[in-house]
């Protein structure tokens, strides 16, 4: 039926496919069209607009009419006085959160997986991902309510025990810890779901064989469970590394105040400050683009590395 | 199978159970404290008498919240954004996911690439802001609905669900009977997909209720602000009070006390819709995350 090599045959088949798609499957195209158009406007148009990072954007001249200035904005950012601070804060928050979240989530999932009593397993799972549904504003509100210098529960208890109350909310040293550990509290239950699913997918025969060989619980966790969830863990790690410069804007912005800026000023809040509040569109677009590209490079780099080391990769 | 437990296993088990019990406390206590503090008198809280149970029970905080116009305006707006936004999200997601689930859809690979690229690269905050400004939808309902209408992750989850639950044979049978794709989608696919639609509805609804970023960037009028914006005013914008001296606090007196304690009640009121949804969420939620983790 298929004769490869005859070019007019191929073009004939191609025409047939097009005709078939146009007459029988046209409605599939109509169904996907809204999503394509919306992404075109809200994702691809901004990618096109990112050229203002290399221009001196004037709202009156539009994106196309503005003058090219090359890498000027990037150089200005790299040499600005707070560049080092912003980069340091962003990377510290990111790595700190990765180092805390990644292993603890896996440990948590493994502990839940070992629970035999069904009701207990269900309860702890439900309770653990309840905080995930709390909005960022409320979470930050809760942090401020609990750690308030005079009226917060933490300081009230400290004072009762005879300690001096501490100013957590306005302290630059406390900020990363508050940010990371509240994030763990909110996210661990949700992130663990994926690992629990992976753990339940491990062949029980492996465990049985290990038991017959005399392996204790810890041995089985180490030699059966951990290798079993390694592919999932690798994918999660790659995804996380791809977002290393992408510390979420909302929570940091909400927790920020003039007194903790030293550790709380990060790339995305800086972009907001300079761009939306300061209306320096081109300069802040350049900072944003730098962040996107650095992320992309990191993602591809880590992905390649993982592919070489473990044969698991995202793409 | 009966597992014979060694002595070592029993120790490990005990440690796990104790740790998990402690964690359960850590997860629940802050939420419990908010509840008991919201009905306790400010003096009792500040005196450290509210730890396990409410003390000097009063509903004064809630009374004040009820007459607070910001809460009502925010509630109304958030409900509108949530309902309209979720409907648009659902329509776009389900409609886009179905063609992608069909192996005979020729543009499938192209469309997948088109979607996935946006997950890894974006124009960033400022170019997006400029485009939205140019569209002239700043400070309207649309800016709360359209920019986030396409959620690529959820489209992929839904696509995976369709692929796994709608057999190709069913589609072929439909085609033989002269059914168009669209009719097949409405009459066969959707009725078989209530599970994923429920999961998506919950994901989207909670997302809209909790979202704050779009309002901060694109809304100006106070009477269009969603609840989260007012919550921020009430909950987190009182940095001054944090650095206030005790003398100041006495001067401010009752007024200040009340504004501090309504915070607990406000948190409860703000979480109410999500709390109502939670029983449904937790039933479908795990399923949803599992489908998603089957890797698209």
Write the layout of secondary structure elements.
The complex is a heterodimer of chains A (315) and B (296).
Chain A: H1 7-24, H2 26-49, E1 55-56, H3 62-65, E2 67-68, H4 72-79, H5 83-114, H6 118-129, H7 136-146, H8 153-160, H9 174-200, H10 204-212, H11 217-241, H12 249-255, H13 261-264, H14 267-277, H15 281-310
Antiparallel strand pairs in A: 1-2
Chain B: H1 7-38, H2 42-46, H3 60-66, H4 69-101, H5 108-120, H6 125-135, H7 142-145, H8 152-165, H9 168-176, H10 181-189, H11 194-210, H12 213-218, H13 227-236, H14 239-242, H15 246-293
Word description of this protein:
The complex is a heterodimer of chains A (315) and B (296). Chain A has 315 residues and is an all-alpha fold. Chain A has two domains: 7-56, no CATH class; 72-310, Orthogonal Bundle (MetI-like fold). Chain A is 73% helix and 1% strand. Chain A has helices at residues 7-24, 26-49, 62-65, 72-79, 83-114, 118-129, 136-146, 153-160, 174-200, 204-212, 217-241, 249-255, 261-264, 267-277, 281-310, and strands at residues 55-56, 67-68. A two-stranded antiparallel ribbon of chain A has the order 1-2. The longest helix of chain A is centred in the first third of the chain and has 32 residues, at 83-114. With 296 residues, chain B is an all-alpha fold. Chain B folds into two domains: 1-58, no CATH class; 68-296, MetI-like fold (Orthogonal Bundle), CATH 1.10.3720.10. In chain B, helix 8 (152-165) runs parallel beside helix 15. The longest helix of chain B has 48 residues, at 246-293. Chain B is globular. The interface between A and B is large, with 100 and 103 residues.
